[in-house]
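Form 7-S
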Amino acid sequence: MTESLLLVASDAMSGIKGDVILPAYWTVFAPFRRSDPAVADENLRRVPDQLVVNGAKILPRKVTPLRGQFDFQEMFGGPPDNLEKTAYVYLVLQADRAGEATLGLGWDCWLDAWLNGQPLLEKPEANDSNYPPTVADRLLTVALEQGENILVLRYVSGLGPPILAVAGPQELRTGDFRCIADDMLLK
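Output:
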């Protein structure tokens, strides 16, 4: 990462709010296609036992992210087969008290996000300017309720390695914004 990128990230990190810790694993339903209909609204407020889309029942998988990132290549296939493959990712955030928390997101290529059933983005956002994706690409400050909060991400992959990055305030404060794709390149 260049010095200028580090300075930009450092400036953005000064406004980090909250102390919620992200879970050690993510619950993932995949693969779907980008063209598949959206899941029912009630499935955006809780972690379901299964998702049914176009008559297909998809059971959840627990995945363990590395530095807040997960590579979906095993589920989606590699480029170019992974183009527009889709995953619903559920993270249960436990908040000791109600308040604001900053989340960091990075992805390639489209993302939709909901917190407790409420949309976090105006529309599915494309992210083709930041590659490889890191947890510092898009910062959102959200209002958490005391207790359990459900963050749902509908991730759609592009042509590159299908990596989704998610961080909470504590992870953002560490300043480790390396993408796991960089690890693969160093091997």
